[in-house]
Fold each of these.
Amino acid sequence: MRMPFTSLTFKLFFVCLIFVFSVVLVLFQMSSSVLKQEVRSGNDLFIQQMLSKVDQYISLSFSSLETVLYAVEASYSDSKSLSEDIQPILRKLYSMNAGSVAEVYLISGNSSMIGGSPRSILFNEPDQERQRLFEMVMDNKNSIYFSPPYYSRQHGWTVTMAKYIAGSSPPLAAALDIDLTEIEKSLLLSTPTIRCSSPSWIPPGSWWPGI
């Protein structure tokens, strides 16, 4: 008498079971691979759309901030007093852009400054780092200078924009400090799925000028 597991029927059953299991496994792997590819493609498209929106937001923000520098330049006149005539304009420009700008100010040749924020009076004395910024602006009088991101003790992560005031005598530079923390908050409100972080490769206390 033959044992059940040695019969032809059992062998066929076992072979069919292995075949079905293999087919199911192959189909599962194929469907999993296709699903992962679809998810990856969807994520890539979503990220591209978000990055495009972020790029548009940053471009608009910087274009808007450039107009602040041109407004400072337009308000300048040799016949105007910096403290009595220009500083009120700086204060108004600062208050209008306080959500993204940490300071709006004028830099003179000796690196002293006149600013629009209430705390500017605490940092208006000549400053070596501000002197470097002034020299860079003087070397690029026909364009707006953008500093690399740096860590300011007063504002945290900051980028400074500055330009030469055409026709100023003695030479002056208009500058503003962009508060990157506030820019990040605005981006998170408009694109809540994106998390921005401060660049870890830039050490705190970087020399780049801020007030």
Amino acid sequence: MNCAGEEISNDLFGQGEQGGSASTDSQQKAPRPLNEITGTGIVQTEEEKKKAEEEIRRKKEAEEAAARQAAEEERERVKKEKAENSFGTKAVRGLKNFFKKMVEEEE
């Protein structure tokens, strides 16, 4: 033993004493929750990146679907309002009311 620590050997990183190294698959950690790593400067694993991208895509699709639904409802409302305020509808409504009043006066 020397003053710097253990004896120097030709074995790189001292793996000979440990009996081999574990594979990278067994060393990988489970993905951390998204709220734990956002904005903290922690580098995400590939699985975490995919999960975050999928979540962002789902949120974007939900927002687009809600916007399409709102636009469709607005179109239906405008179409209904236009139909109610058209000249033909107003004329028919006026005639109906006129004939109702005529019938009521006769009775």
Amino acid sequence: MLYSLVAALALATGATPLTHEVRVGGGPVPLTLRYDAEVTVEHRQHGTVAPGGRADTLRCHWATRADVRRTLVGGAQAQQAVPLASTGALQPMKGHRPGWCEANRNAIAASVEAGLPRLRAELVAFAERDRPQVASEIHDAHALFRPGS
């Protein structure tokens, strides 16, 4: 009996956090601009199972998602934090494997782990490109972190 697997499965393998920090100065209080991205993996099951002797078409398609959030941290012992506008997303990693998504969970996790250095490098490059855009926000935030406020 052939049956189609049309439903999309969102089987998250857990989130992997990526963080990059940049010191920003120029004001009376040292500030750190922190970029956080949580890498999650979404799985999608495609294809059908075939009876014995016939090839099935089961495939697990997967893709990562990593939205970047930035936070300005400063004040006494860097205990004050101001979330800034979300800035975008990193390029997703994508792939597919034959068979069931659940059976391929470890192999997919290994593929994602192997791609994390690229995502870290992309996060650093993202922060460098973003720096001119946040200059005015940092200037405004210095007022929030002045001693006595």
Amino acid sequence: MRSTWLLLLLALLSPGAPAIECPQPLRIAFLDKAIPSKLEGDGTKFASPPGRFVDWLDETLRRMGCAAERVRVPQRRLLVETANDMTQVTFYFAHTAERAQQLVYPTRTDGQPERQLALAETRLALFVRADRQSSIRWDGAQLLPPRLKVGIVGGGVEEPLARAAGWDLDVALSHAGSIAKLRLGRVDAAVLPQLSFSEQALHEEPALVALEPPMHRIHFFAPVSRALHARHPQFVKLFWRTLCEVARSDLPHGSPMPTCRAE
């Protein structure tokens, strides 16, 4: 009996698994434009409160026992600076094949993005003013009448899709800017992810509506630089898993709760 208690005591006193090695530097980039209910304020500074995205990150780092510098940068620099390891993580970036050539996303064994670890999923759709809905037609392939002016955000996931469609484009710096142009009638339609709006904002006059069918379904992640992944693969794996768990725990009550299990 005495030997059993001694073994238990030694087990309790023995060090557990080594803590994850926290990378330094660790700079995490956020967009410099507000995202309704998710990221507050515009510009290089973080608002107070900063929004749920920053809360998710801070809780993730707290659970991992790591520290990081948070920065806000324009849309077009998000990809470039993380690809060049000037920032090590881009927070909340949609997956595209082009971006996956420069950044590391959570990936399944078949090379496809690991959607179980996605932070969010949304539709990319063409939005129009409700008072013009009857005069604009979209069948999933063709937008009519011809020569409509379509708003996009430069560097956004929508840009390559819109350019491939051959539309006459107006390029804004942010989704908020593209929405403002649509409401003012400076563009006829705008390609936007549905998470750009709260339900209330859609109904503000002049009201906006999404044309069916949606253009694309997109998944958002926190991709990392190839350099960070090469130096700290175990940190990256745990970071993605922990961030997913934090984000899932913040879903509204009653929402589906997919597990954060990866292949």
